[in-house]
Fold this protein.
Amino acid sequence: MEYSQEEDLADLGGELFIKEVPKETSNSLVVLRKAGELCDAVIQVGDEKIPVHRVILAAACPYFRALFTNSKFESDRHTVNITDISAPIMSKIIDYMYTNACNINDENVSDILIASDYLNMTHLQDLCCDYLSSKISIFTCINIENFAKKFFCEKLRQNAHKFILHNFTKVYTGCDDFQLLDDTSLHEILGSEELNIKSEEIAFEAIIKWIDYDPPNRKCHIAKLLRNVRLALLTTNYFVEKVKVHPYVHENKDCKSLVIEALKILYDLDINENNLVADNISIARPRLPYEIIFVFGGWSGRYATNLMETYDSRANRWMKCKGVKSGMQ
């Protein structure tokens, strides 16, 4: 019985989905646009005119889809004026609509993100956010978080905010933008359980540095910010000699009750080190640790074990350590 190759392949069944437009097709569309062939619209940005195909822009961009399919949009209208995006950026975005490729760099990323937000091109906006996420550092994290807040880029904001929390000591000492934070942002940072600091002294000193940048307008926030410092975790000497007597604290009447509460807890702990402080008292509650807890040995039934396990408080999970030699028999 004879059979053809086509019949044999047909017997395989199923379907093949090509997720991306073939490169040859994209290149051909670009060539047509550059040559002005089959174009049925012009995007005008200032003095620059960019010939385009409506169907391509409508398929790639919600803004143009809404514009071109609106019943009020004249079918014979040829030119669309864009006033809020520069010509170079608009040209680059139109290239992206045709090729699904965009050269994003430090110089153009913010302009492309703003333009993609204006055009409701979430995929391009996400690419810009991914690029900015890769650029988060001690020196850029606060500026990037503020930018992300402004344009509602939540994933980018979370990435930048987490970086600030995890590297707070380096950020407050090395990032010039730290002193430009508003009181609400600093309050949020200091109030986080994930704030990574070796001691609460760092939190207090960060507050003082921030207020020192503009004392007349900022010292009024000392009480609100101080409530986010785990004062009862400071040493008694540090609290008495540095916090209690500091002019910003001493001169603010709203700090009085907080100082009294902290002193009471600290003195109780000094008298009896075994005293337990309720974890619902915010100034005494430890922050989430960054270290990993190691547990050795234990019992299984009637027999001792030589297991070693670790607990990661951030991942909230236990893990067995494999390949660890033990002297336990």
User: Anything to note?
Assistant: Confidence is low (pLDDT under 50) at residues 5-13. The two ends are 72 Å apart (CA to CA). Residues 232 and 261 are 9 Å apart (CA to CA). The longest helix spans residues 256-271.
